[in-house]
C-alpha cells in the first residue's frame, strides 16, 4: 500500500486508537487519530483522508451506536465518496449491517485480527481511489464491457438474459480479465440494483464477516471474491448465511480445480449460471480497443495530451500476449501517458518494462497463475524488497502478497 494512504481513526479509547495506528503505520500508511467528532472535523478540514475508521460507540458507556450513526451520516453527507469502515463490538453484527446500509463501506469487529483489519483498510483505500477516479474520468469510461470479440459479445448477452433474474452466477477467468467489472454490471442490470452491492473477500473471511456481509447484502447482491479460497471449514457458515441473497461468485479456477476447492453443496448454491471470461490474448483486437480507451482515460486524468498510437505501437499491442490481461494493459497505458514524450505513442512507450532501469525484465510469457513464485521473487528484487511497490506491480494487496511470500518461502 502506498505510503501516501492517509487513515483517520475516530475512537475515544486511546489504547484501541494506538493499536490501529501502530499496525497501519507499520504497513506504510499515515494515520491520524481523533477521540471525538469535533477533533475529527478539525482534521478533515485540514487535509483529505483515504479511509475513516469509525468506532460506532465512541462515547464511553454507550452501546447503541447512535452517536456513531450520526457521525456516519455527516461524513457521507459531506463527501459522497467517503470510505468509512465502522468498528463495533463482537455482538454488534446487526449494528454493522445497519451501518453498511447507511453508507459504510465495510466493518470490523472488536477485538479484531490484525490481518483482517489490514485487509479491510487496504480494500477501503482501493475503493476510495476508484471512487475518485470514477469522478475524474470522461463519460466514455462508464460501466461497460469493452470489446468486439465473440467472447465479450457472449458475456454481454448473458448479462442481459440472466442479470434480471435471481439466479446465482459464477464468473471464472484468469487474473485481470474483468471479473469484478462483470459482477458490478450484473448487479446494475438486476432487479436488486437499488439495493446494496456488498463484496466478501473469501480469502480473508471469517464466520463473523460472512454473516455480516450476507445480511448487509439482503435486497441487493453479494459478490464473493475468490470463492475457491474460502477455507472449507467456513463453507457451512456461508451456506447457512446466504438464505435468499443473490450471489455473484468469482474465481480463477474452473473444471476439476474448482470442484476440488469447493464442496459440492456450496458449488450447487453459487454456480447455477457459469460465465467464462477468456484471457485477453484470446479476444482478438479487443486489446487495441482497450488500449486506446485507457490512453484516453489516463490522458484526461493526468492532464496530458491524448496522442495517437503509432503503427509500431499498435502492432506491438496486438501481438503481445499480455499475461496480466486487462490489468497489464491498464498499467502499461498509464505508464505510456506519464512517461512518453513524443507526438505519438511508440512501441517503446507502450511496451517498456514497468521498471525502466531493470536490466533484465521478466519474460513476457510468465504469469502469476503459472509461475507465481518466480514472479513474486522478481518483483521483490525489482523493487529492492519494497513490499508495497511489489504488491502494486503484481496487482495484489500487501496482505495477499505477504501470504504468497510465506507460501513460497520468500
From TrEMBL:
Residues that bear 4-aspartylphosphate: 55
Domain Response regulatory: 6-125
Single GO molecular function: ATP binding
Record bears the keyword Repressor: no
Keywords tagged on the record: ATP-binding, DNA-binding, Nucleotide-binding, Phosphoprotein, Transcription, Transcription regulation, Two-component regulatory system
Record domain Sigma-54 factor interaction: where: 145-338
GO terms under biological process: phosphorelay signal transduction system; regulation of DNA-templated transcription
The protein's name: DNA-binding NtrC family response regulator
Source species of the chain: Sphingomonas aurantiaca
